[in-house]
What does this fold into?
Amino acid sequence: MGVSIRAATVADREATVALWEAAGLTRPWNDPRGDFDLALATPTSTILLAEIAAALEGSVMVGFDGHRGWVYYLATAPGCRGQGIGHALMTAAENWLKALGSPKIQLMVRGDNASARGFYNSLGYELQDVVTMGKRF
Ligand SMILES: CC(C)(COP(=O)(O)OP(=O)(O)OC[C@H]1O[C@@H](n2cnc3c(N)ncnc32)[C@H](O)[C@@H]1OP(=O)(O)O)[C@@H](O)C(=O)NCCC(=O)NCCS
It folds into this structure.
């Protein structure tokens, strides 16, 4: 059965958050429902969903900041890994960004997430010699 990709709507919030939780992407200091709503309410960001036979099996959040494209919350349902869903989602995220004129896509991955690093590597993503710094508002 093929994978189809579509943009999320507010009606997809609970199923998507459940997927993020199952994939181990939520953290106590982030409100995933708030993250979901904010991404959908922002004109230059979206959440793309991967479905097989109408069942939600993957997601990626993607946004363009006017200079670079950024990716968050990439997840494939634990029972559906290794079938090309993550690859299909990243291709869709790249195409979404290209359509907005973004010249580059990048992402943050926890240093100890060897599996995700292997995945991104296989898609041509390279390690960048930078540190990320942040500040909460
Ligand atoms: C990372 C993740 C999204 C990959 O999803 P997936 O649907 O299993 O990936 P795919 O099946 O599309 O794999 C695509 C390619 O990556 C390769 N790959 C996947 N995992 C890999 C790994 N651990 N090491 C090396 N290559 C890997 C696959 O072999 C495949 O290559 P191919 O097309 O040449 O066969 C999934 O493992 C996941 O949800 N992890 C938990 C959440 C997470 O860590 N997200 C990233 C946060 S930054």
Summary: The beta strands are 3-7, 45-52, 55-64, 69-76, 105-107. The chain has one domain: 3-108. The chain has a mean pLDDT of 97.
